[in-house]
Design a protein that fits this description.
By secondary structure, the protein is α+β, with helices and mostly antiparallel strands. The protein has helices at about 1-10, 45-50, 55-70, 75, 100-105, 110-130, 170-180, 195-200, 200-205, and strands at about 15-25, 30-40, 135-140, 140-145, 155-160, 185-190. It binds zinc ion.
Length: about 210
Amino acid sequence: MLRGAAKNFLDIDESELDVGLQPARVGDTVTARVFIGDALDNGAGYAVELGQPHTLEVLLRKMRSETGIRLRAADHAQNCTSSCPKCLRNYENRLGMDVVDLALGEDLTPSLWDDRAAEMVETFERAFLPHARLAHEFIGGVPVVTTTEAGGAAVVIGHPLWRHEPTHRDTRMSAAISELQSRGMRRVSTSDLFVLDRTPFKVFGQLT
Ligand SMILES: [Zn+2]
């Protein structure tokens, strides 16, 4: 998505840029940095230009607005709900195809997922209600699905980019877990809206 936005921004061919991930450590967290470089040995200096803080900021904003709007337009969105060869899929990301997703790439802030959260948990509840007594609620804005079966269980459904380990949890997720535990909920686990959307059986499995 970044390379596509850079292509439009500089009016060049995508093959002129290399984009990839470089493992990095921030504190005790292993994460990755995105790098962008000229594909040709004697490149025209596109990467240096894109690396200027102001240029990069403009590029990232365009990635979200212009590229996002184009891909969500009816002619593409009717046939593509996550990714396809016309938008994000390519030879380089073929091994991570299951997580190449427009909504993840476009939306590094919670807004887009927040907007869909209510509809997604309601759909989940309707689909699985015949199989277990389910309910859902929002604790501090964070969706939670619960069941009263087998002593009760709850799954806190976070943003897809939130971390779940206790030491790095988003504070909203931690607050929801504390609230559920203070009510005496015996089994509280975590998941995210991407999993709920793609593999709802996993969330159901955590409840039962
Ligand atoms: Zn697509």
